[in-house]
Specification:
Blueprint: E1 2-7, E2 11-16, H1 26-41, E3 47-52, H2 76-85, E4 90-94, E5 97-99, H3 101-108, E6 111-115, E7 119-121, H4 135-143, H5 145-154, E8 157-159, H6 160-166, E9 171-173, H7 177-187, H8 209-224, H9 229-242, H10 245-259, H11 263-277, E10 299-303, H12 307-318, E11 322-326, H13 330-344, E12 349-353, E13 364-367, H14 373-386, E14 392-395, H15 402-406, E15 415-420, E16 429-434, H16 440-452, E17 456-461, H17 468-485, H18 489-499, H19 505-512, H20 514-523, H21 529-532, E18 539-540, E19 543-544, H22 548-554, H23 581-593, H24 603-623, H25 630-640, H26 650-657, H27 659-672, H28 683-690, H29 699-708
Parallel strand pairs: 2-3, 3-4, 4-6, 5-7, 6-9, 10-11, 10-13, 11-12, 13-14, 14-15, 16-17
Antiparallel strand pairs: 1-2, 7-8, 15-16, 18-19
The structure holds ligand LT2ZWINM.
Length: 710
């Protein structure tokens, strides 16, 4: 786990060996501990170089070990202290990355040499933690408080060049890092080390320290959205700035104790693995990620250059593809060309055309036109005629039937959905939607392309809204019902924002445009002139229906773009939402017209009704086999719908709340609202509760048993 050999006559070269990222699991900690002791007592050794196997220094503590109540083997703090106290110089040779405990290890060395492509950082905050093995105390002593706090709070990866400027690295080189570190180690043999032991150094002084930390704490509180780890980062760094090292270490230990087994830390760490779980996709046919080969893709066409098409063009170009961007409306094409060039800052290989023929020779097409089945069908038919045989035809539809589009083509097995999220060049999620006729090779190719674009890609089955939008529907529906019953958009949004969403449901609708849902409801036959005549306004298909969104659109209130929606904005396109007296009036009149009596609605009811309805649909998605696992659903919600990471995604949240409690809540609300089928607990949830509410990683066994009985 930690290889030891003496090189160049006097240098102990210790190499961490724990693929794939050299995480510091118990055996590694033990190996390091023993290797340092050996170097200490080896008379031949006058210096030490610490490196990682296979071009990777160290990815930090082993996150998989964190579930253990007491971690086996020597504690990281103990290993790092032993290293810092060594009387022989220790040089870290950093290749690849030194992250989390990996960087803490490097900070316990006396010198740090990095390869120019190396990256360092403290991503613990993303895991609901902070650098709690000495990192929060050593880094500020090396680079100063402001730089250290920034690195610790953001969790960002710092490139070698910047790390050198900050003084985090002593040297950056382009050649073999270990060889350079060995040469360097020999040059410092016998030299005094005291100033290189960060634990011995005071923190560089900071003017207006109180004001600095107060300001930092305010900023963190306003951005953390209920996450505790970022607040702890500030507290720990403040300790480094004000306390002697050993006292700072005591504070760090105490703070880590409050986080280590917390619900937020568990949720964040679950998200880390859920993000990666999507790569191991499977289809109901049994096709899997490890048995299907992706087709090589070098060229792509994007059809339709609205907001989504432009973002997709940028994402594909940034992934190194040569892209043909097609838009039949000339003025839109010129505008898109300017916008895409701006986003790509002159880089990327993109050509533009008003003619679909330009897609004739590409390997893959992403259709991103208006959300209208008839238009999309026409385009798929044309593409099938125009494109060379074997071209993968994909659609960015957010709700429509992939199989119906496939049936317009010559080769339905080459059709899949690639559902991007706006803005497509920034949002990490990609839903790859397979229809009953999509080939495993087509799915593998879309998944592989998602990876190239840096997306969290999740393969899902075909149904209206797929996974994300299907689950969103009952959530939105509950929010509207709550308005009818007496809530305001402000009350609903405040509850959801306090839960951790960056934006409540009504602010989000205003941002994405109320007309989008209106159009979908018209397509679904829920609203529109021919539909409403003679029908009770609040019932559709024998179920409760809220026409509030339709009425808003009829008033021309589409949200931010028109300057008013659920909120008022200072101008069309304005961003700052203000309460709108018109809306209060409108809601009062609406309730009066329908004989509804407004009641007081608590934040708890808002959360339970909106979130439980969404979660319930998540169970149905699992039950129907549309998502392969709860982890996939959670990745979709965290990376596509900004579900707070420290809550772990909707399905993980349900497991933390307790499945029995979610079931009880749904039963309660369904009894109160029997005309709302989305509140009726689904049978998978009932079965899970009846099976004793197993942990989330065991749900699949109940799902499988359930499916075999269908
Ligand atoms: C950038 C990466 C390192 C590499 O990226 P990439 O090349 O794309 O590869 P991936 O697909 O991401 O990863 C490959 C597989 O490796 C797995 N992996 C990666 N990192 C780790 C890890 N650190 N541990 C375990 N496994 C890891 C990954 O899951 C992949 O496998 P699979 O596909 O899922 O099967 C990238 O991987 C990355 O960013 N990694 C994470 C880096 C990171 O976050 N590091 C920080 C970890 S936390 C840490 O180091 C320190 C925490 C501080 C406290 C620690 C103290 C511990 C003991 C305290 C006990 C105190 C108790 C107190 C209570 C009391 O007092 O009572």
């Amino acid at each position: 786990m930690a290889q030891y050999r003496v090189v160049s006559g006097s240098v102990a070269l210790i190499t961490i060996q724990n693929p794939p990222v050299n995480a510091l699991r118990a055996a590694v900690r033990e190996g390091l501990f023993n290797a340092i002791k050996r170097a200490s007592s080896d008379p031949q050794v006058r210096s030490v170089v610490l490196s990682g196997h296979n071009g990777t220094f160290c990815g930090g503590a082993d996150i998989k070990e964190f579930g253990n109540v007491s971690l086996p083997g020597p504690h990281l703090v103990e290993v790092f202290q032993l290293m810092e106290d060594l009387v022989k110089p220790v040089v870290a040779a950093i290749e690849g990355f030194a992250l989390g405990g990996g960087l803490e290890l490097a900070l316990a060395c006396h010198y740090r040499i990095g390869h120019s492509k190396a990256r360092v950082g403290f991503p613990e905050v993303n895991l609901g933690l902070f650098p709690g093995a000495g990192g929060s105390q050593r880094l500020p002593r090396l680079v100063g408080v402001p730089a250290a706090l920034d690195i610790i709070i953001t969790g960002r990866h710092v490139a070698a060049g910047e790390a050198l400027k900050l003084g985090l690295l002593d040297k950056v080189i382009d050649q073999n890092t270990v060889d350079a570190a060995v040469t360097f180690a020999k040059s410092v043999e016998g030299k005094p080390l005291d100033n290189h032991r960060l634990g011995n150094r005071p923190c560089p002084p900071l003017e207006n320290m109180d004001a600095f930390f107060e300001e930092a704490m305010k900023r963190v509180h306003s951005r953390a959205r209920g996450a505790v780890a970022p607040i702890t980062c500030v507290q720990a760094v403040r300790g480094a700035a004000t306390l002697p090292f050993h006292k700072g270490m005591e504070l760090e230990k105490m703070l880590l104790g409050t986080l280590f087994n917390s619900a937020q830390a568990q949720a964040s760490q679950y998200c880390f693995f859920a993000e990666r779980a999507g790569a191991r996709w499977s289809m109901p046919s049994g096709a899997r990620w490890d048995t299907c080969k992706a087709k090589p893709i070098g060229t792509a066409a994007v059809i339709g250059l609205g907001t989504m098409g432009r973002g997709i063009t940028v994402a594909l170009a940034r992934a190194g593809l040569s892209v043909v961007a097609v838009e039949t409306q000339e003025h839109q094409l010129a505008e898109a060309q300017r916008a895409v060039s701006r986003m790509l800052k002159g880089g990327g290989r993109v050509s533009y055309s008003p003619d679909l023929q330009a897609a004739a020779e590409v390997d893959l097409v992403v259709e991103a036109v208006f959300e209208d089945m008839a238009i999309k069908e026409k385009i798929f038919k044309q593409l099938s005629e125009v494109c060379k045989p074997g071209t993968l035809l994909t659609t960015n539809t957010s709700t429509l039937d992939i199989d119906r589009l496939a049936s317009c083509t010559r080769d339905p097995q080459l059709v899949v959905g690639m559902h991007f999220f706006a803005p497509a060049h920034i949002m990490r999620l990609l839903e790859v939607v397979y229809g009953p006729r999509s080939s495993p090779e087509a799915v593998a190719t879309a998944m592989q392309l998602g990876k190239r674009m840096g997306k969290v890609s999740v393969a899902v089955g075909n149904c209206t809204g797929f996974v994300g939008n299907r689950m969103l529907k009952p959530y939105l529906e509950q929010a509207n019902f709550l308005l009818e019953e007496g809530a305001t958009p402000e009350l609903v949004d405040a509850a959801l924002e306090e839960f951790g969403f960056p934006m409540g449901v009504f602010k989000m609708s205003d941002l994405s445009g109320l007309d989008v849902g209106w159009r979908v409801r018209k397509e679904e036959g829920l609203t529109g002139p021919g539909v409403t005549a003679g029908q009770p306004m609040r019932i559709r298909h024998s179920r409760r229906y809220s026409p509030l969104g339709d009425l808003m659109c009829e008033e021309g209130r589409y949200g931010q773009k028109t300057g008013s929606g659920w909120y008022l904005y200072d101008k069309p396109g304005g961003r700052v939402a203000r309460s709108d007296p018109w809306l209060r009036n409108f809601l009062e009149q609406y309730r009066a017209r329908h004989g509804l009596v407004a009641r007081r609605i608590s934040q708890q009811e808002v959360l339970e009704r909106c979130l439980y309805a969404l979660i319930n649909e998540g169970f149905r998605v699992l039950e129907d086999g549309i998502a392969a696992s709860p982890q996939n659903i959670d990745a979709i919600y965290v990376f596509g719908y900004s579900w707070p990471k420290h809550r772990g995604g909707p399905m993980f949240y349900a497991s933390q709340v307790g499945l029995a409690r979610v079931l009880e809540g749904l039963n309660h609300y369904h009894q109160a609202h029997p005309d709302v089928p989305h509140l009726e607990p689904c049978s998978l949830l009932r079965r899970l509760v009846a099976s004793g509410s197993p942990p989330i990683d065991k749900w699949s066994e109940v799902v499988k048993g359930h499916r075999s009985q269908l």
